[in-house]
């Protein structure tokens, strides 16, 4: 068997994603295929991503690899809960749980009396978990204004969030955000529009998408529950009718009085 084949057999986990973090059902986790290197490649120990993005409360895989074949010590140093999933003489694969704030994880080993270390900087982000849509009012007359509000609670970073308001499949509003803080905050999008008869035939919805792929993370997508708008025909304005009555009735009375005077009362007195 070739030297390359021997190396692959010694390291069965090198084809697995080395780091990963599921971000809710149906979403993709953070994944990096090159967090460690094969022995004898000439690279230093613990080659891999130094910056990792993890959804709040999620987990992360960390692969610690030594540069020598038989390290005296190979550990992952962290105060977080961790589980050793698999190991060989040169590497260990850990799963770190419940990451709720920014952390530093340290892989360390001792080879030939020399200590080697690799620091992984974990940054926590807050993906959208709820998307709340409100129509106000829920019953409107044709031609009147109503408001569509979409609220995405406790998300960060905002600059990676995109919120879209939809009527059926038609995009009514597409909103991005500006902000650099990593602390979670509510994202709110408000759209005022005029009611049309056909609006009552469609579902209104809101989609929130957080794209962390440029930062080493995944793509998180959430959709609100659909909402229906009740659209009614405009009701005649009663106040207008009252004004017309007040003006027209006295005018008709006056005109009738003049005609009666001219054709009935005056001839009798001439």
From TrEMBL:
A single cellular component GO annotation: plasma membrane
SUPFAM superfamilies reported for this sequence: Immunoglobulin
Homology family: Belongs to the immunoglobulin superfamily. ICAM family.
Transmembrane segments annotated in the record for this chain: 242-264
Membrane topology: Single-pass type I membrane protein
Protein source organism: Odocoileus virginianus (White-tailed deer)
A Pfam short name: ICAM_N
Assigned keywords, A-Z: Cell adhesion, Disulfide bond, Glycoprotein, Immunoglobulin domain, Membrane, Repeat, Signal, Transmembrane, Transmembrane helix
UniProt GO molecular function: integrin binding
Domain of life: Eukaryota
Domain Intercellular adhesion molecule N-terminal: 49-130
GO biological process: cell-cell adhesion
Cellular location(s): Membrane
Identification of the protein by name: Intercellular adhesion molecule 2 isoform X1
